[in-house]
Amino acid sequence: MTSQRRDVLKLTLAVAAASALPRAQAQPTPAATPTVATAGTGIDPRDRVFITNEDSNTVVVINPATNTVESTINLTSFDEDPRPPFRYVTAGVAPTHAAMIHKPLYHGCIDAHGAVPSPDGRLLATSGRGSSNIYLIDAEQRRVIGNAPNPAAGPTTNAERLSSGLLVGREPHEPTFTRSGKELWVTVRGEDRIAILDVDRALRQLKGTDSAGGAGGEASPTIRQFLPTLNGPAQVWFNREGTLAFVASQKVSQIDVFRVNANADGHSRPQRVTTLDISAQDKPGFTPFLKTTPDGAELWLSHKLADAVSCRSTQGGFEVIDTVPLGAGARPNHVEFVSNARGSVVYASLARIDDGGPGGVAASPIAIIDRSAPSGQRKVVGTFFSHGREAHGLWTNPENTLLYVAHEQDELPGTPNAGQTVCSAFDVSDPLKPSFIAQIPLGALALPSGALRNKKSINLVYVRVGAKGQTA
Length: 472
Known about the structure:
CATH topology: Methylamine Dehydrogenase, Chain H
Helix content: under 10%
CATH architecture: 7 Propeller
Distance between the termini: 30 Å
CATH class: Mainly Beta
Number of helices: 3
Largest sheet: 5 strands, antiparallel
CATH superfamily: YVTN repeat-like/Quinoprotein amine dehydrogenase
């Protein structure tokens, strides 16, 4: 996002009307001390929620069985050396989140943003927008792949030295695994291309065991190719069969459609099918997020500056099915789908913050779109408060009974989790009437020199390690 657009967005949010959306008849009411999910909502011991935090450059891991932070994965390079220039806290002073990444010899992640699980849930790919790289995380061990023993390790340092990750280009926004899991497609938003990585080769390079490129950090052909696409590509998502790739942009009112054309080894030979004009749905040309429905029939897109979401067919000519306005200043971020015995909906997280949330505390709304309505007639049928400010990432559990929401802004003074970035959990067994479960403060990463507060959550994914997930 350019600084000009970011300034416009913040100004618009500040002056937006309290709400232009209809409200659900029954707003979720917080329990006195909500901590765990209600019975029968479908939690497996392997389940974890991962949240990327852009300002702190950390990944928080939440156990949904307890709705508490289990651990924080460190993507910073602080405290790898006992000397002051390398430490997070020096002489009792901690830098601001914006200044910390400019400390001398910092080599860690800058602006941790995107996150996506592999089809089997064993890997997590995370992008560093500012550091122009991708990190791969072992979702079961909850550790960064490629970290090495720290030669300066001691009682006042970290035991590991952070991997350099995989360099892919300027402003990698979102990574997405192909349905086979053989490749990782990364939209390089600061350019006009997609970096297509060979996952097996990437793992070998990170572990230093790639005989083709050589161990010890030598160059390796991990990037199979750069695929030219729209200017400012925001995200790729694949159709259910894994045969088509849809690419949205944050700079032009278009969608690129590619045929994946995978060979016998599962590696792609992309061919552009068409470029769609979406100016009728997104005149400003700012579509940061897209995702196909679990049944594979539809592609939903979030048009942030147009205050709308839209839906297209994933087949034929990819015709527009629905355009759903969300109200002035809504600023949608992500969409998520829930379909179970009691309903089928699309949720859209809104960056807008409304007064009069639960307990009188300002919070963001989540829009509820009834997907069971006839095509061309889908609309917002209600909203519920996210129990946090500037809602962003959304993801549901495999049973479609739990929803987790990430937030960019900290909680307000005078609230139970004041000054904390929070994640919220909901029981969505009845998708049209979500029930609040918990507001989870994300706390801090304990570094040897001091506490680094987890801050500004962006992407959130619910992962069942070893089981087929949404990208399968």
